[in-house]
């Protein structure tokens, strides 16, 4: 059980284990590594760019071991910093004042390993390394011994047989085990054991660079100092020496097993680490070192097996950059590694801390791969391993198991971060022809300068960000959308064909940059030169603004991958024309923002902010003129101030539909209604405003009503569509990316039908005009749990005609085209106001019933107390007048029959027994005809009667709602609903 516990602890070791020199020991202060001073990073902050300048005085040499045992000095005793091929702390024994540094916490160990990389200088004194009160490590010159040695003050000097390496950068190391009086001295490729006469004597570390009781003092450079409080095993010693040798210019050492640290092998000199075994007692099987690659778990580690790895970049940032087409545009890290392998230790596990990698984006897929090759260009990888990511945040680790390295292998890290369109080929996408689809939301989309729009995006796609190089072209096919999480760098072209759209979902201000263009068509619906409409631009053309002339182009030739829209000709004449290029009259260009004026004349070069709309008239194209917007796509947050009681002509600012519900919700404190000018139904043939026949389609959240026979607005406002708003309070109107959506439908509104969660009744009125034309008005009533007073569900009518009708809101002046009232019940009465400028023939009707099935719907005439069943159209002729409190829509005019005999207000008796319907008049009035309808108005039975009573066979489904319509001899027509028994 204990063995199992030990194994589990090893397997669960965190990724930061073995981060000491060469991968021996840890830098968390918990291992036997007690002091680690590095000349390349004097403050031990892993930032190699903030070291002192050359010759600067050194006050603190910070400890890398995690123990904070820094070495410090002040005043004239400070050494200096030396910048050269390898940075060092320089002690000058010839200085007027001795130079040395004191440990924060001094002491000594009699069980230790110490490593020094130094270049001692011969100045006829002992070159002191570590010194204490009773012992000293030294490179001896005193008494001309020229030998590396150890001193026990007051006892003896113990010299090795190793000569002093004056003037030569060298690795000196000292090793002693507890209970032993033998110290092992090593200098580069030589070693010597010396009996120091005491098993309790140990290495001091009080000071660096002087003898505290004599004249000994160091001179020369100290590059690196390492102290362990227990003796490292032989495998660990070999690893540390190979690490130091590679780092400091390929110093000649014994057991030089790492041989990639030279020009012929590519100078993989940096952050060398290793694992290995000399025998069963000398094993080191888990290393990371100063780099980011951890290797452990060798499957077949036996005697004299070693694996080393090192980098070719000294201070890599571990960032990734994209490769070329020959490498399939993968992103590779800014360094690579090379392996030296001694014998076969089997497969290993390779791990990398996610926090050590600087991916291109935290939102990327970041599916990391380990690539192994015999060539440094990785053109033909031997094998690619896909890492498994475990943990989250600072604990996230990428791991690849079963990795087999061969001697001299190269390896690197890569991942697919970018979907690329280059020339006519796409790379790395999940969609058709390797382009993007909706599963690619964590990838960047890059359009190379050579891309000509083939292949195009022919399905919906999600990406993290987009870059279009200058000369490159991205084409979206009709009916699809590209959704981008973050920014777009647009220096080429994005062409949105037909109803294709571009969305961005980030918060905040625009993340679109560049000098390129988006192309987006807008199909106009106006068919003569007298009709006008509201527009807005989905692009900017001058910084953060646009002009009509700059953004709006002749789209007679619809946008394709190769189309070239022409500039529109603007003239002072009243009429536009279908010339080539097309002509528009500048006389009708108008806008109004926070104004009580309904038209402020502008010219085509007037600047507009995104979200501000404009008015223009048509070219007279009887099929509707197509236009093309060109510019940088709008994106992000926009705002427009408005004052209570004022109007603004605004519009959808984005190259995607605008969700009207969300827009109204975000701006509910300021407005509640969108008004869309419908000039398509203006057949006035006049430029005189008083003659215009157009009007406003109207939308409140969840309900839209058309003007006349025009289109009904819904939740989605199409690209380029302008609208009017009215401020109920002073405030700021905001647009943002959360209001964007995608739908394909007409050029006017976003979708042909949108589900609304509450019941809606659409009440219609046809009015016969003087020229025998029929004017139709629709009113919308939403049963949405509000009140019968003024609420956010009510929309004022802005276009009341000379003969018209409207809804009424309690205690509120004005006319309404939409009201939101209480929840549906049969007791509700909906007041109507009818105004006629002369006698008119009227037809009241129900245009639509949505999301509920009322049993009855009646038109109530309060003056005559007559109820007209609106299951069929109700025709009335009324003289001129303003009819207030006369007409109501109700849902009950009496008792709904359930098959029992009943008598209504017209003395009609109805009974239903055994599939026979009996109808008779109480006063024997003759019934001319009788008809039975379904609730949907379908005629089921019709009979001529010419009697006061009739029995009809009605073999219909039990519970079915039926309508009986009786025409009497006296001309009365009575309708009644009943439920089949």
Protein architecture, described:
- The model is unreliable at 1-16 and 895-905 (pLDDT under 50).
- Strand 61 and strand 62 (703-705) form a beta hairpin.
- This protein starts with a helix and ends with a strand.
- It is mostly beta strands.
- The chain contains four helices and 85 strands.
- Helix content is 4%, strand content 41%.
- The chain is elongated and about 145 Å long.
- It folds into six domains: 25-231, Jelly Rolls (Sandwich); 263-415; 418-513, no CATH class; 517-741, no CATH class; 760-890, no CATH class; 902-979, Sandwich (Immunoglobulin-like).
- The strands form 20 sheets. Strands 19, 20, 23, 24, 25, 26, 28, 29 and 32 form a nine-stranded antiparallel sheet that branches. Strands 1, 4, 5, 8, 13, 14, 15 and 18 form an eight-stranded antiparallel sheet that branches. An eight-stranded antiparallel sheet has the order 2-3-6-17-9-10-11-12, with no helix packed on it.
